[in-house]
């Protein structure tokens, strides 16, 4: 059975991780945004300084106690713990380049445990618990109880981090209807520049232009088909840029991933594809013009 049958009460979170729109009040006079390239340079300096002066509880993971909750905890290096290894030196710290708004952003990902089973695409839904902090270690959001997140609606840095991990290999429904996950779920942290967070848009507890830190557990993954047309949403990213909102074949202001008739020919996309018994998809091209029927209004 799919996980969401046991979690029917869960809904997609509307917490701080969701992308936010700017104030569209006609009387609002916006302050000109900073140059994104220049801000990325500034953010990278701040992130590197953070990674050089902070550590996580790696020793707990190396020799876990029976009561250990497998939660990443980050602290500042000082005289009392000067022997701790800074995050920047960890063999588990990776970098990832994410391009948005014609800027190449560097994200740092601490992969403490990759996970065991399903690996999400950038459009999928993920079941995660998390904690969000600023670089001064002040917490702005957290959820100890796992929450479903639609990665098409989260801030880019968080979604891009999730795609580097996998969920647990399984779970058990206990007598009190709670879920016990196999202890092989993904465990990690992401350190992102403001350009992949909220950038110039401030939140209640997040100043504008703030680099962000998230620690998280990734428990479950559901492949998303937002419009139910039979094509997984990740496959509707036709230009391969992992920005799902800019692929709109029929220019009707509905991106393909939420458009049940991608080419606008009044034939539903679901009727112009073939879903095979093994779950694979065949895309017929009736007029052999190189464009599959579901994207070709002239077939």
What would you say the CATH architecture of the largest domain is?
A: Roll
Query: What is the rounded distance between the termini?
Result: 39 Å
The biggest sheet, with number of strands, parallel, antiparallel or mixed sense and barrel status, is: 6 strands, antiparallel
CATH class of the largest domain: Alpha Beta
Write down the overall geometry.
globular
User: Would you tell me which CATH topology of the largest domain applies?
Assistant: Chitinase A, domain 3
Helix content: 10-25%
Give the amount of beta strand, in percent.
Answer: 15-25%
EC number: 5.2.1.8
GO molecular function, one term: peptidyl-prolyl cis-trans isomerase activity
Region (Disordered): 278-299
Keywords: Isomerase, Rotamase
Question: If you had to describe this structure to a student in words, what would you say it looks like?
Answer:
- By secondary structure, this protein is α+β, with helices and mostly antiparallel strands.
- The protein has two domains: 207 residues, Chitinase A, domain 3, CATH 3.10.50; 75 residues, no CATH class.
- Helix content is 10%, strand content 25%.
- It is built from three helices and twelve strands.
- A six-stranded antiparallel sheet has the order 3-4-9-10-5-6.
- A hairpin with a 2-residue loop joins strand 3 and strand 4.
- The protein starts with 35 loop residues before the first helix and ends in a 17-residue tail after the last strand.
Summarize the structure.
This is peptidylprolyl isomerase. The protein has 299 residues and is an alpha+beta fold.
